[in-house]
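quick one: zinc ion bound model?
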Amino acid sequence: MKKLLPATVAALLTILSCSKADNTPRLVIITLDGLRWQELYSGADESLMGSNKYWRETPAERREALMPFIWQYVPEHGYMIGNRSKESYMQVSNTMNFSYPGYSEMFCGWADDERITSNNPVPNPNVSVLEVAWKDPRYNGSLSMYSSWESVRYAVNSERAGFPASSAHEPSFTNTYVTRMLEDMDAATPGEGFGYSERLDLITYGMAMETLRESHPKVFYVAFGDTDEFAHEGQYDNYLEAAHWTDRFIGRIVEYCESDPFYKGKTTYLITCDHGRGVGPEYTDHGEKTARSGETWFMAFGKDVPVLGETSGNGPFYTRQFAATIADILDVDFTPGNGVKSAPIDPEYSEND
Ligand SMILES: [Zn+2]
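yep, here:
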């Protein structure tokens, strides 16, 4: 009888807390560094692949073999933009076409091409929409992020904002046996994985999952990086593997959230990339000198997202609209540093209308 008591109290507390349900929006943001729209929408490129593991006859079969969670789940729970072969257009506004300017544009809402000109881990002078959300009492204490690459948290300036962040080989801000194990695995990885400034996505994934389970942030950002690393190394097959496993990680995160009453049915998910890559053998590169490497893509699904599947004949959309889209979902007032507000992404917008 005595042993049952704590369980009974816990059950009562659960009922009480449910009766005063907190309906503040929940938002999960995921980015894939430098994953091209070409692979997302058409799967493996026959001219670049060594192994035929992800080769199928049609683009629809190839993309589903490469990223099965996204293709089986997202079109039925939201929408996707950026498939240029279906005349859906998205791109960065900055002229750099590399990572820090991409993340800065994404979260600060404009292309600050005067000041944001390198990938160095220096604090962003611009204020991100995450910093604004953190200062809102509804989200303060309930917003955090993980990134594989160290400069992502500088681009959103987590330090000035004050929200928990862990990047590259920094320890997790959630302290459990699982996160301590992941920190050991990260430290024991030969060559530090991708070097001092970037840990492997599988470590980032594990820490992110444990934080979701332990501390239930209302706003949560996970920035994966393996895709860009393998592409730069000219390892196209490993680039495909990275896309495939990131798809699995995303699937597990969504599966977890939709099984937890804190997130289930209350969560919006946004996924995008920081830049594109060159075409054909130029896939290894991106930047000002690499043609078409400013081409990006975007998807949204979950709470309050219109179910339109893969969209066509729309845009052009810009990466700077990502910040406005976040502000819209979180119901916070956000004005980018240049004073110009962008419209949230509306998948039914077309400049031809
Ligand atoms: Zn890169």
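The domain at 30-330 is CATH 3.40.720.10 (Alkaline Phosphatase, subunit A).
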